[in-house]
Write a sequence for this structure.
């Protein structure tokens, strides 16, 4: 199985800050990575697919990038509504594995 | 608007069975692969199963293989998950999720249901 390792496991930042979350795949997955946002008591929502393509309706402050097997989710200017847990997921190897999640809190 | 509505969750004893349903609307159901993803209380996300658009392929996580069966009725726009030989570790919120593609080569979940709780306990 491909292991997806997210860092950090939690982060606290202020409104307006730039926040970066990293996900490392244990083997090559090309660009087949998605990012999800989950708020407490709610279903996850797709933010980014294919490593860097923004899903419909997602604010432009969210972006994704890839360098080898390292993937990054960046929030350019943190907003209060961005408080959530973020998950990465590799999308082209069975089983389709998720990272352990990164909890983002607003200071 | 894409809508996915799960039903069938319940409290069941270990060794018991349950069938979950997911009613889909707002998109052409028969064109897309569909998945089940679960989340144990306070834990992360775990992919469970996928079925391709034409029902020709199904895949399962090792943790449920041989116990769970995914199926779909494209005439009724409903996705199912038959769960047998349930264990305490199957306790979770189960989400149905629409895939971006019809096949199973790339699985990215672009829309999710609200989730349904399955509790396995005596």
């Amino acid at each position: 199985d491909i292991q997806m390792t997210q860092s950090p496991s939690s982060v606290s930042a202020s409104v307006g800050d730039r926040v970066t979350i990293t996900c490392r795949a244990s083997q090559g997955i090309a660009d087949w990575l998605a990012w999800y946002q989950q708020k407490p008591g709610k279903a996850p929502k797709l933010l980014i697919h294919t490593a860097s393509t923004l899903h419909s309706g997602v604010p432009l402050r969210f972006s994704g990038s890839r360098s080898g097997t390292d993937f990054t989710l960046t929030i350019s200017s943190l907003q209060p509504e961005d408080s959530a847990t973020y998950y990465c997921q590799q999308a082209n190897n069975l089983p389709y594995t998720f990272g352990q999640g990164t909890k983002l809190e607003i200071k | 608007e894409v809508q996915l509505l799960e039903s069938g969750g319940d409290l069941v004893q270990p060794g018991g069975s349950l069938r979950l349903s997911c009613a889909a609307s707002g998109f052409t159901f028969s064109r897309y692969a569909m998945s089940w993803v679960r989340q144990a209380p306070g834990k992360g996300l775990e992919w469970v199963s996928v079925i391709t658009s034409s029902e020709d392929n199904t895949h399962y996580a090792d943790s449920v293989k041989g116990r769970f069966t995914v199926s779909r009725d494209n005439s009724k726009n409903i996705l199912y998950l038959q769960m047998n030989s349930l264990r305490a570790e199957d306790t979770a919120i189960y989400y149905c999720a629409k895939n971006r593609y019809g096949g199973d080569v790339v699985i990215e979940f672009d829309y999710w249901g609200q989730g349904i709780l399955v509790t396995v306990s005596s």
Q: What stands out?
A: Chain A has no helices and ten strands. The mean pLDDT of chain A is 97.
